[in-house]
Amino acid sequence: MSQGLTGPSPNERPKPEGRRNSQGIRIDPEIEAEPKARRAVVSALVKHQPGVLAEVSALFSRRQFNIESLTVGATYDDDYARITLVVEEPDPGIEQVEKQLEKLIPVIAVDELEPDAIRREIALVKVEGDEPEAVHAVAEMYGGKVVDASEETVTVELTGSQQKIEAAIDTFDRFAIREIARAGTVALERGAEATG
Amino acid sequence: MSEPAHAVSRDEEESTDDQPTTGASSVIAALENASVEIVFGIQGGAIMPVYDALYHSDVRHVTMAHEQGAAHAADAFGIVSGRPGVCMATSGPGATNLVTGIADANMDSDPLVALTGQVPTAFVGNDAFQETDTIGVTMPITKANYFADDADTVGDTVGEAFALAEGGRQGPTLVDLPKDVTQTETDHEPGMPTPPESYEVPDEADPETVEAATRALEGAEKPVILAGGGVIKGNASEELRAFATAYEIPVVTTMPAIGSFPEDHDLAMEIAGMHGTGYANMAVTHCDVMFAIGTRFDDRLTGGVETFAPDAEVIHVDIDPAEISKNIHADYPLVGDAKTVIDQVDQAMTATPDAAAWREQCHAWKDEYPMDYQAPDDEPLKPQFVVEAVDEATDDDTIVTTGVGQHQMWAMQYWTYTKPRTWVSSHGLGTMGYGLPAAIGARLAADDDQSVVCFDGDGSFLMTGQELSVAVREELDITVFVLNNAAIGMVRQWQDAFYGERRMASEYPWIPEFDTLAEAFGARGFRLETYDQVAETVEAALDYDGPSVVDVYIDPAENVFPMVPSGGDNGRFAMNQAHMEEL
Fold first, then answer.
1. pLDDT score at B471
2. Residues B527 and B395 in one domain
3. Could you tell me where the DSSP H helices lie in A63-131?
């Protein structure tokens, strides 16, 4: 059978010296280093119109970006909304997140926030109401406040960094937590620097 | 060409009937503003107001047999003309049938505008008859899509969709048109197509990076230019040729870039990747600087990224910043328009790379890994021979369209492409059935004296063969060569290579006679079975003024080589079956 063409076989050919990693970056073939994932806060200023959130979330799902939290809210200008994303990816991935977001037509600007940017989360924690004073004291300790109390329950509002909220929830655990509602990170740059 | 049946009544009506301006007539006015001359589509309930407005327009409508055909025809029209092709369909199944064609255009950055009917806005979300969430379905496969909710602005929205499909990195856009919006009267006339204000298209690359990239290229001992589809989309083929020739740098192309650099040029290494030439893959694997222009480093090109051009510093030109370092890290990212950036680099060049030895090596590889195939008289027809015979019999500016599979690879390998926009194929999505509707779109975009040839497979032809009815009705001179091996040949090849020759669902125990089928449609049919018939049959089919189909009985055992297995090392391509065992 005359199957195929002629030429030196694969093992007879010269070999290149180099190698790339799975991100397509040239590396020393002796050291097999894959970039580590890091957490980044990305802020996107978008047109305030129907479907933008769907477009953004569809993008993340389709490109398999690892997303930790996503919040959307109004801005000072009614025509625009701000989407704040926390992503965990190696560096080339974070760059891709930003570039792919920028390609969406309703997206006006995208920025990764500085590591010292102000980041806040909010949580509502509903605990058993057996010890209202103690709950109150713990809430104050974390800068939170009691926003609802019934015969059976006390609900506390907490804001702060993710770590602070996690710590507070750990502490509230001893009052027997009934329910928790949390929202993702919102963030702005410090000082005069504009965000996205 | 026969006049459409209603042509007479149309003229009469125009003099008496003062049509009100509606959302639908704004849509058509927007197309006219964009100089659209032709729309491919199919009628249906929710799109009827738009068709009614088309009745009063000079824009030509070509009714296709299936909406997928409309999308592919519009896509091919866009490739050949450089301007967005327009397709139109009704809601529900009309829109979902367009989806394959839209996805195809999205993968290949082909300019395309899709207009879909939608149920009236009051019914949207109620699961009304022929309702589909077209916006939701097409969101991930369009550059942008729009739900038009206002008769006053719908024309401008269509204009914006057109401008976005055409501008920057081209791609498909879609406007969903609810029936009440297109029926509502409006006094607003749409303006010229304009992209949204926030849409920015990079033109010139960063001058400092250009400077640094140029120094790297000048200093290269083993430079390669990798031309991608962006060279053709950016109308930079002439600049590429001048640049490569001036600095004597070998040129490798990707599949969508076929025709961007003449394959008969001394510096042409032809196509790299899975079924690229051995010499192109050697050049890519061993180069020390790669000047890549308008490519997204698709996996069929790179094979495993770990072994792709592993010794090369990469200069990457792309109009889409998101392509930079997406798959292959760019040492010198040049975001900008292909033509402009080639010119920038040219201006910055102060020396020709000292690469005589490398060019000699590239030529040696051409001799070592030739594309010469065996065609013994006592074996069935070799498809490569037929491709070469058709190439011989036609002019240089002939347009080739293809389906997807083995026949596509042979058409790519054994035809000598010398001009941009003469290769019209489905690359990224790999859509079987693309070839025939694409030939229809290409024919309508091509110059009258240009020939249009489609190489198809039997499997591909069976998927969209009904579009032959359109070619006959519209009297389109196209010649289809069905390279018939009674199998989904590429799958059969992979089964033989990787699945222990278990040919599950890849062979057709019975297939129609395509020549007879063509005659039933009103086209001319030919059959080609032996070498001594080739010249005569090819000539007769090409000479026929109208659509013809040549059913070519090729060697069913023939496989496509060279081959780099999926995710493999480009430098370790197999030239033949025996090499496959080594991989």
1. 98
2. yes
3. 91-103
pLDDT reported for residue B9: 47
Same domain, B165 and B225: no
Q: How far is CA B497 from CA B281, B407, B501, B565, in A?
A: 21, 18, 7, 9
Q: Which domains, ranges and CATH numbers included, belong to chain A?
A: 37-112 (3.30.70.260), 118-188 (3.30.70.1150)
Residue B13 pLDDT: 47
A16–B285 C-beta distance less than 8 A? yes
Can you tell me whether residue B501 is helix, strand or coil? coil
Residue A74 sits at the chain B interface (C-beta within 8 Å) = no
Q: What are the distances in angstroms from CA A110 to CA A66, A99, B200, B330?
A: 17, 8, 14, 22
Contact B223, B358 (CB under 8 A): yes
Residues of A (86-125) whose Cβ lies below 8 Å from B: 92, 95-96, 99-100, 102-103, 105, 108
Query: Residue A30's pLDDT band (boundaries 50, 70, 90)?
Result: confident
Q: CB contact, 8 Å: B374 with chain A?
A: yes
Residues of chain B with pLDDT under 70: 1-18
Q: Is some CB atom of chain A closer than 8 A to the CB atom of B139?
A: yes
Q: B199 in a domain, yes or no?
A: no
Residues of A in contact with B286 (CB under 8 A): 14, 16
Percent residues over pLDDT 90 in chain A: 82
Which pLDDT does position A33 carry in this prediction? 67
Nearest by CB to B310, from A9, A19, A99: name it: A19
Domain residues for B280?
207-368
A22 vs B541 pLDDT, higher one = B541
Chain B residues inside the 8 Å CB shell of A51: 135, 139, 147
**CA–CA distance, A46 with A106 (Å, rounded to integer):** 6
Residue A99's alpha-carbon distances to A25, A138, B222, B303, B330, in angstroms, are 18, 43, 32, 24, 15
User: Do B245 and B363 have their domain in common?
Assistant: yes
Q: How many CB pairs under 8 A join A and B?
A: 126
Burial B530-565, CB ≥16 within 10 A → b, else e: ebeebeebbeebbeeeebbbbbbbbbeebbbbbbbb
Separation between Cα atoms, residue B368 and residue B361, nearest integer Å: 10
What residues of B act catalytically?
67, 129-130, 179, 490
**Is there a contact between B311 and A18 if contact means CB atoms under 8 Å apart?**
yes
A6 in contact with chain B, both atoms CB, cutoff 8 A: yes
Q: What are B171-222's pLDDT values in tens digits?
A: 999 999 999 999 999 999 999 999 999 999 999 999 999 999 999 999 999 9
Q: Is B348 left (phi over 0), alpha (psi -120 to 50) or beta?
A: alpha
Q: Please report the pLDDT score of residue B65 as a whole number.
A: 98
**pTM value?**
0.94
